[in-house]
Amino acid sequence: MRLIPTVDDFTSDPVVQRYDDMVNPPGLTNFLGAVQVDHDVTAVRSVNFAPVSHGDTVTGALWVDGRLFRSYGVPVTIQWRPDRVVRSASLGDLTIESTTVTPPGVDGVVVDVVVTNASDAERPIRLGLSVASTVTQAGPWRAPEPPSEPNALAPAPGRAALLGRAHTTAAVSVQGLDADGARAGDRSLEVDVALAPGERYRFGYVHVVGTDADGALATFDAVAADVPGQVAAARTLWDDTLRAAFTPGNDQFSGHVPTLETSNDALRRLYWWGVLGVIWFRRDSPASHLGRVYDTLMPRYWQTTTFIWDFSLSSMIHALLDPVPMRRQIEHWIALDIHRHFGTEWQTGGPAGYWYSVNDYAMIRLVRDYVRWNGEPGFLDVELAAHDGPARPVAAHVADWATAWEGFRKEHALADYGGIDNLLECVSSYVHEVASLNAANVWCLRAAADVAALRGDGGLADDLRTKADALVPHVGELYVEGQGFWHARQPDGRLLPVRHCYDFTTVGMTIAADLSERRRDEMVEFFVRELQTPSWMRALSPYDDDAAFSVRPDHQWNGAYPAWPADAARSLIELGRPDVAAAWLPGLARTANQGPPGQAHFVEEAAEPLNGGAVKSPPQFPYLIDWACSSAGSWSALVVEGFFGVRPDVDGSVTVTSRLDSVDPGARLRNLRVGGRLVDVDATGVTDSQGTHSSGLG
User: Fold this and answer.
1) Can you list the positions of beta strands (E) in 254-402?
2) Who contacts 615 (Cβ-Cβ below 8 Å, separation ≥6)?
């Protein structure tokens, strides 16, 4: 049983596409920036390494015998692995295969190409790549696509390469070939070869960006000198990173995640999927104002931006794997006005976007998880200044966030969370007084009460708990009796029924114990009846009146955001049906077959599944979905907090309420860091480093 994955364990299923099929091409990262491959065998796009950006420009498109490869209309097979993307196609008597990587420590990408003559006669061939350059050094990047600007292209002296120069900044790109006899034209790179029957010919395409020509040319020369070596180095980088992530005391992260022993392949695959999906967003860019950061979306949209909401959905993994940058990020957000933006742009540290109404709930989750998993109650006493006041203990900020909802009340007892852009962006009826965040307010009040009690402020703790208990029946006013879903109350008092998963997941994860057994059962019945699919789920029921409003699949009927199935399974567990969640796992695990979780996957009715897995939704309008999203850590939390039932508290105590009987009674977590201690966890409880066993730790 392998306990620590390698890149091979994440190899995707092959995706076969023709030109501009609605396929989301995979991305790559070396933790400095990101690249996305495009719809042929060699082309790349979104080559962005802060502070230098290319926007979403496509470059490196293949030409064969003077004709654009795409125009032949042949299918291309694409397969992803953390360290590489392999693409292949057959064109008449030629087979073409490429391996694309982002080399370690390099602001750029290489494509290693092999062309084989499959005929029984000599085959002359002209191979070419078209070159486009739009680099710039404009910042901050506060739009979905990074900036770009027109460039001038000119031959790079002594090389089969073109140097692109920005008109208004010092940014440059260098794109060239490593092949003998290759040449650079005005906008192209070419090489002529004659292949004997069965002969293979390889060449490398190297594309680097930089802030000055001399430095970029030197990097290009070093990379072009050994392209196969760069491909091998990319694998080493990723295997070493994965090994470090699961190893206590490693030299790459400030923490680690536990290893999982299980005979349940689906449980293991989803756990690893979640860990990988967080690691993929690590950024060690020298352009970062905050040091190491974790991005949110990649590789096309919102690079250099970290959303509070998405970060919080992977909160447990951030707390276990890399608590030092997590704490720094929390402290930075405390200093900003979280009621005016959805995150920060890390090149400057400044705010990005508009207000997301989830932010108070998200910040409490982040602080609580950092404290309870790391055994750091002292963090609650650290004095930090918010944007509008003097330095105060972190615990005071937690209390402020927990009661911020009171300032959002209007005519009714519940908080009004505003319009469509403050909530789900593509569900027009999910506005104002929604069940999800008002239920979360109950949880936030109780979480803040635990913090107050820990610090000896019993009066505040009692007050917060009293408010939480009083709020519960008002949340219940939004319930649609007998149906299992909830209303959204409008400012005029109208109750709009909204069959959305965010109510199901958040209510179930925050106040399940406050619901009657009948309501819990009805919620589960609604979920199974209208949202669950074999390998994914619908965010919105297709029976909902708003299902025709949008086709953006992260929150609509045709798909779901990647954290929603994981959190839905958590909600099923809290609502008393771990068996339903467990039966769903094999189908969900089939969806872990295309790299890290996408910003959304289509349900089976919206797009043909890929080898039984729900396919990633495409980036083109009107879908606008990125290839990967950092909320992947929710899948690992489903395993650790959901099925293992590990619950550390801010006071250092740990309880275990196992639901492993439904998935694998013999499963075990090893080297789980809880409150600063390394423990093992199985269905019977916790074993500490001295071998002492209990159902929990006090």
Assistant:
1) 259-261, 282-283, 293-294, 297-298, 305-307, 343-345, 350-352, 383-385, 391-393
2) 594, 601, 602, 607, 608, 609
Could you give phi then psi for residue 649, rounded to 5 degrees? Answer: -120, 170
Burial of 472 (0-12, 13-18, 19+ CB in 10 A): middle
* Closest CA relative to residue 587, chosen from 547, 628, 528: 528
pLDDT of 689 > 60? The answer is: no
CB-based burial, 69-106: b 16+ in 10 Å, e otherwise: bbeeebebebbbbbbbbbbbbebeebebbbbbbbbbeb
Q: What average pLDDT does the chain have? A: 96
Using CA atoms, how far apart are residues 174 and 52, in angstroms rounded to an integer? 13
Same domain, 186 and 95: yes
Question: Is 81 in the same domain as 200?
Answer: yes
Same domain, 504 and 536: yes
Residue 253 and residue 230 share a domain: no
Which of the four pLDDT bands, split at 50, 70 and 90, describes residue 693?
low
Using CA atoms, how far residue 665 sits from 16, 586, 643, 682, in Å, is 39, 17, 10, 8
Percent of the chain with pLDDT over 90: 96
- What whole-number distance in Å separates Cα of residue 82 and Cα of residue 562? 18
Q: Characterize 209-236 residue by residue with b for buried, 16 or more Cβ atoms within 10 angstroms of its Cβ, and e for exposed.
A: bbbebeebbebbbebbeebeebbebbbe
CA distance 395 to 453: 11
* CA of residue 41 relative to chain centroid, distance: 26
CB 29 within 8 A of CB 102: yes
Whose structure tokens read 């352009």? Answer: 287
Instruction: Return d(Cα 610, Cα 628) in angstroms, integer.
Output: 17
Q: Tell me if 2 is assigned to some domain.
A: no
What is the rounded end-to-end Cα distance, in angstroms, of the chain? 32
Scanning 211-284, the segments in alpha helix (DSSP H) are 213-224, 227-245, 265-279
145 confidence band (pLDDT: 50, 70, 90):
very high
SS3 60: coil
Q: Residue 622: is the preceding peptide bond cis (ω within 30°)?
A: yes
Domain encompassing residue 612: 247-682
- Scored b (16 or more CB within 10 A) or e, 493-519 reads eeebbbbbbbbbbbbbbbbbebbeeeb
How many Cβ atoms sit within 10 Å of the Cβ of residue 66?
8
225, two tokens: 């000198």
pTM of the model: 0.96
Burial class (CB in 10 A: 0-12, 13-18, 19+), 251: exposed
Asked whether residue 157 falls in the same domain as residue 269, the answer is no
Residues 317 and 192 in one domain: no
Q: Which amino acid is residue 197, in one-letter code?
A: P
Calpha distance 231→202 (Å, rounded): 13
Please name the residue that has the structure tokens 């039966």.
583
Find out whether the peptide bond into 542 is cis, omega within 30 degrees of 0: no
In single-letter form, the type of residue at position 454 comes to: L
**Residue owning tokens 């403050």:** 422
Strand order in the sheet with 677-682: 259-261, 668-674, 677-682, 685-688, 693-694
Query: pLDDT digit string (tens) for 415-448?
Result: 999 999 999 999 999 999 999 999 999 999 999 9
Find residue 59's DSSP bridge partners.
44
Residue range 148-197, pLDDT digits in tens: 999 999 999 999 999 999 999 999 999 999 999 999 999 999 999 999 99
